[in-house]
Amino acid sequence: MLLSRSTDADWEQWGQQDPYFAVITDDALRQDRLTPEGLSQFFTSGEHHMQDVFARIRRHIDSEFMPKRGLDFGCGTGRLVLPMSARMDDVTGMDISSTMLAETQRNVEARRLRNVRFARSDDNLSQLEGKYDFIHSYIVLQHIPEIRGRVLFKRLIDHMASGGVGALHILFNNTIHPDPFGQTSPSLIARIWMLKRHIRRLVPRLLGRKADPEMQMNSYNLNFIFATLQAAGIREMHTSLQDHGNAHSAVFYFRKP
Ligand SMILES: C[S@@+](CC[C@H](N)C(=O)[O-])C[C@H]1O[C@@H](n2cnc3c(N)ncnc32)[C@H](O)[C@@H]1O
Prior knowledge:
By secondary structure, the chain is α/β, with parallel strands linked by helices. It has eight helices and seven strands, in the order αααβαβαββαβααββ.
């Protein structure tokens, strides 16, 4: 099936070709247009995101939330690792792309941060050691085929310490995805969108030019997400719904008992 093939090579390619654009798809972040101002705005957006995450956790989950050991799963170029490192003793940035991880490391070293570790991802999360009292992931699982992402979601919950807090972002509907709201046959609009996507990658290749790698947008079945959280003993959650036009997603905030 088209959307279940591995995405890892694509992400390595994104890391090599256009790492900042691959995180926030804004043309100003294309590698050949990157400016110090563009980069500064990129990292400011990470700080704002983390302020919002902490405010929600303190308002809805734990008013005294002060994690010590955090994981940012799918850290990209470190946009969210940097603000996490200012808020806890020990942060791990994990990514499937070694080039993305190297870019995070460059950004961490440039700021002389001493409390960040780096881990290469795999489907067993085998480089993670022990438990974390904060596990965070934003705009990552959507780029992984659901069949693999479900396993990763479970493993992330397994790596949470008792009393730890999770903030995990899930895409649950994509109106141009072949499988909106669990419908099995691709709609006409989805078929046209997929065709356009393939032509956009094929034409530059035929002309001998560099094309963007694929960036999949996979929605997840919320029944599975809720059942997994429930099986881990979670009974209450705060949900922040996000609407990016065609893509509807949620960040789930919860505490593991
Ligand atoms: C859109 S970027 C988001 C980066 C970061 N979370 C942020 O918001 O700044 C998605 C990241 O997920 C990473 N990724 C994709 N598949 C992954 C996997 N199986 N395990 C860990 N990271 C993965 C990509 O390499 C990429 O760096």
